[in-house]
Amino acid sequence: MPRETLSSILKSREQLWNDVAQLATDEAFASHPNNDIVELKKLVELHRMIELRENHSRLMQLGLMKERNANLKKLAKIQAILNDSSVLDELDDQDADLAQKIHKLVI
């Protein structure tokens, strides 16, 4: 038996949900209002809502990762500046003290 790939599994899962949604709205079943069809429709709606939340969560995660990467680049620049002793020599006492405290925090 051939091994399924993630994309084929996701595609078959999506097809399954499409089939379930189609079944829930099928006229043959809709004409017989029974509790199972109502529950099936609720299940399809729940699945749709979960998919929307999953997509939103993925977008939020990507945004946070992008922000993290930008902050890491800034941190690397700050560390490079703080590691340069000539920069520290040019600062007055108050700024040098602040620079030393920042240096201890980031390194």
Q: What labels would you give this structure?
A:
about 110 residues; mainly alpha; 5 helices; about 85% helix; rod-shaped
Characterise this structure.
The structure is a single chain. This protein has one domain. It has helices at residues 6-25, 27-30, 35-83, 85-90, 93-106. The longest helix is centred in the middle third of the chain and has 49 residues, at 35-83. α1 (6-25) packs antiparallel against α3 and α3 (35-83) packs across α5 (93-106). By secondary structure, it is mainly alpha-helical. Helix content is 87%, strand content 0%.
Q: DSSP helix count?
A: 5
Strand content: under 5%
Helix content: over 70%
- Cα(first) to Cα(last) distance is 54 Å
The average pLDDT is: 81
The description of the largest β-sheet is: none
Q: Count the E strands.
A: 0
Q: Which term fits the overall shape?
A: rod-shaped
Q: Taking Cα atoms only, what radius of gyration do you get, to the nearest Å?
A: 28 Å
Question: What's the number of domains?
Answer: 1
Element-by-element helix/strand order: HHHHH
Give the structural class: mainly alpha
Which segments are poorly predicted (pLDDT under 50) over 5 or more consecutive residues? none
